[in-house]
Automatic annotation (TrEMBL):
Organism: Dactylosporangium cerinum
Leader peptide range in chain numbering: none
InterPro entries recorded: NLR-like (IPR053137), P-loop_NTPase (IPR027417), TPR-like_helical_dom_sf (IPR011990)
The name this protein goes by in its record: Tetratricopeptide repeat protein
Gene3D superfamilies xrefs: P-loop containing nucleotide triphosphate hydrolases, Tetratricopeptide repeat domain
Cross-referenced Pfam families: TPR_10, TPR_12
Domain of life: Bacteria
Length: 750
């Protein structure tokens, strides 16, 4: 990944300035959340989640299917049924077959939830799709709403599958206690056999008859004796048989020949324990399938791709990401992605799950490696000394290319892609004790991207761990380590942990001056960041002094027309405005605007930012008519240049609504706030700080117009979300709490 210091830092700092201005205006205007009628409801879907595709040569498993049908009972009967069994036994395929039958039978709901990391995320997604609760409700509350749907006694036919449950205790509180829903749980954990209220249908290995039928269909061989010997060697585990049959068919071997080759594979006892199975022959079969890839694919595309997939998130990677031009260049597959995937799928080393088309009409297929197979691959790579490192390196290059295709300015708008990439980055980091520098860059990107998306709960730990890694790997004085410390300080500031942010910024500045020099551009950025933290903490005299120094140093070192110099001037004007020195603020905003128009042009985003902040200065000075005219003009230009969904376009609409409030045009303000809120919910999500700001402003407009009941309801909702997202002691949370108290007082006085 190629890095140039000043464009990234200037853009990032510009985002900080916009955010600070949003939050300062938020506290000055006072307002909050959407009225119930504004929520965007999604049309109910009969099928939720990604039901795994039908496995080749699927066996009906007569015993298990019969037991499952008896346990689930007939229509109108509730049922909780667990399918415990070893990895690779076919539990998921058995549940998926039943789910497809329910779909074909016209069930009102067939929900498939991957519950390996707990059921909350999947249930919350079901609630959102079904329009339950409010979109800004916390996931646990939405999950509870989904459970209430499953508990409904309304004659609807519903099935929910919790697949791959790893922690029975985490699931226990989210199982319906009444109603008529049918629930299937798949797990390799045996605790379900003793949990009250749950009927267990153990899923073991294929019976000999099922295994022989499978081998005959998959290989076309009629040698029953050889098939029995092979089945016994593999413990009749469906996964092992599938891999063995694929290898036999592709290499035109007899069962005896395959067994001879299989006997030459040797896996130690440690691998048997890691794989979580009592059938070492299955592990040998996996090893043989991996070894056979070289003959099936001489260029080695399939093997290289499999090594990458084995170290990514176990939930799999979207095929559309693998198919991008950036990914193709990083993977270097000479025969193309489709050919490599075909070989891996044919040999049963990967699974193609998900759906053929997503809601937008794109490719919704997910490529995943069975967890047992991935463990075998990683174990073998450990023994091969360099192979695992090669896989980590290749996966890091892939993620580097994919994150390059997702600019930080876009992460809040492409949240599903962000979450998937973060999952892959963190999984990859977990597979190496000595992360290479490029992987640490990806970890830093993950933290910065979560910060940019407003997900501070996840951002701070990721940034903290990345800083720890960089201190150990690169040393305290490396520029990347200094950048990590600065980025963590920024997350602290956004989270309201201002004392920690200021302490860390001070330390970074001291080290930057020592290591890079007092006039290095990165040192000036560190000085600017510290000044911003002083401003946020209300230490305005210190902020003004430091901003002045940054502005003067930028003019001296970089020149008066350098983008960073112009940015520094805009920052100084902003702190003048915060301090009430409005004449100086307006004059300096005007000067920077003129310079930016001359140097960058009238339509450059930085120029539009200058006009936006000049409009805010007019507002602060009471020049409201001029402010509204300028806000309106900036909005029109941002719509034209950036588009309607750009975050800064939404910012212009938000502040224009605020100006309408100030001049008493409350109906227009409320309409505009509601429109902005709908778009921010759609684009940024309910927990983003800017979404919270618009909800708060809307509540203030309701209070101002006398709609106190609606205002109080909105204030209550925003307060709950602010406490959850930002913390109970965050300055914004305190502001919302004060506004709620004021609205309640007005209600009692009325």
């Amino acid at each position: 990944m190629a890095w140039r210091w000043w464009p990234l830092l200037v853009w990032a700092a510009a985002g900080v300035l916009v955010t600070v201005s949003v939050l300062l205006e938020w506290r000055r205007h006072r307002a909050a959340q959407p009225e119930p009628g504004t929520r965007r409801l999604l049309a109910p879907s009969r099928v939720f989640g990604r039901i795994p595709l039908h496995a080749g040569h699927f066996q009906d498993r007569v015993v298990e299917v019969g037991a499952l049908e008896r346990a689930l009972g007939g229509n109108g009967q509730a049922a909780l049924v667990a399918l415990p069994g070893s990895r690779g036994a076919g539990k998921t395929q058995l549940a998926a077959a039943y789910a497809r039958r329910c779909d074909a039978a016209g069930f009102d709901l067939v929900a498939w939830i991957n519950a390996e990391s707990g059921p909350v995320t999947g249930l919350a997604g079901l609630a959102r799709v079904r329009g339950l609760g409010d979109e800004d409700d916390p996931p646990e509350q939405l999950a509870a709403a989904a459970v209430r749907l499953l508990e409904s006694d309304d004659r609807a036919r519903r099935l929910v599958v919790f697949d791959n449950v790893d922690d029975p205790d985490a699931l226990a509180g989210f199982l319906p206690a009444r109603g008529t829903a049918k629930v299937i749980i798949t797990s390799n954990r045996q605790e379900f056999t003793t949990m009250p209220g749950i009927t267990t249908v153990p899923v073991g290995m294929f019976t000999q008859a099922e295994g022989l039928r499978f081998l005959r269909e998959a290989t076309g061989l009629a040698d029953t004796g050889g098939a029995v010997t092979l089945g016994v060697e593999l413990g009749w585990l469906p996964l092992g048989l599938a891999q063995a049959a694929a290898y036999i068919a592709r290499n035109r071997l007899s069962y005896r020949q395959y067994l001879t080759v299989l006997a030459g594979q040797d896996l130690d006892e440690t691998l048997r324990r890691q794989a979580g199975t009592d059938h070492p022959g299955v592990l040998q079969a996996t090893t043989l399938s991996l070894a056979g890839l070289g003959r099936d694919d001489p260029p080695g595309d399939a093997s290289r791709l499999l090594a990458v997939l084995a170290v990514l998130s176990p939930d799999g990677i979207s095929r559309r990401l693998l198919a991008t031009g950036a990914a193709a260049g990083a993977l270097g597959l000479t025969g193309g992605l489709g050919h490599a995937l075909d070989i891996l799928a044919t040999t049963s080393l990967i699974t193609l799950g998900g759906i053929l088309g997503d809601t937008g009409g794109g490719d919704g297929v997910v490529v995943s490696v069975h967890r047992l197979t991935a463990r075998v691959i990683r174990h073998q790579a450990d023994n091969a000394e360099t192979t695992l490192a090669d896989g980590v390196t290749a996966a890091t290059g892939l993620l580097d290319a994919l994150t390059d295709d997702l600019p930080l300015a876009q992460v809040a708008l492409r949240r599903a892609e962000l979450d998937e990439l973060v999952g892959h980055i963190l999984a990859l980091r977990g597979h190496t004790e000595h992360p290479p520098p490029l992987l640490l860059i990806q970890c830093a990107w993950a933290g910065d991207a979560l910060h940019e998306a407003g997900d501070l709960t996840r951002a701070v730990p990721v940034l903290t761990h990345t800083l720890t890694d960089r201190l150990r790997v690169l040393g305290a004085d490396h520029p990347d380590t200094l950048a990590s410390r600065s980025n963590l300080a920024g997350a602290y500031q956004q989270a309201g942990r201002l004392a920690e942010a200021i302490d860390l910024y001070n330390a970074v500045l001291a080290d930057s001056e020592r290591v890079l020099g007092i006039d290095h551009p990165d040192t000036m950025i560190s000085r600017n960041n510290l000044a911003n933290a002083y401003r946020a903490a209300g230490r305005l005299a210190e902020a003004i002094a430091l901003f002045r120094k940054v502005f003067a140093d930028s003019e001296r070192v970089l020149g008066p027309d350098h983008p960073q110099t112009l940015f520094s001037g805009n920052q100084l004007a902003g702190v003048y405005r915060t301090a009430g020195r409005l004449a100086e603020a307006t004059a300096l905003f005007g000067k920077v605007l003129a310079d930016r128009e001359r140097v960058l042009g009238p339509d450059h985003p930085d120029t539009l930012n200058s006009r936006h902040f000049l409009a805010l200065a007019y507002e602060s000075a009471g020049r409201l008519a001029e402010a509204i005219d300028l806000h309106t003009a900036v909005l029109a230009d941002r719509l034209r240049v950036l588009g309607p969904d750009h975050p800064w376009t939404l910012t212009s609409r938000h502040f224009l609504a605020g100006a309408y409030r100030q001049v008493g045009r409350l109906a227009e303000a409320i309409d505009l706030y509601n429109a902005v809120l709908a778009d921010r919910l759609r684009l940024l999500g309910p927990d983003h700080p800017w979404t919270l700001a618009t909800r708060h402003e809307l509540a203030g407009a309701y209070r101002q117009i006398g709609r106190l009941d609606e205002a109080i309801d909105l204030y209550n909702a925003v307060l709950a979300d602010s406490e959850r997202v930002l913390g109970p002691d965050h300055p914004i949370t305190s502001t919302v709490r004060e506004d709620l108290a004021t609205a309640r007082t007005a209600e009692s006085d009325g």
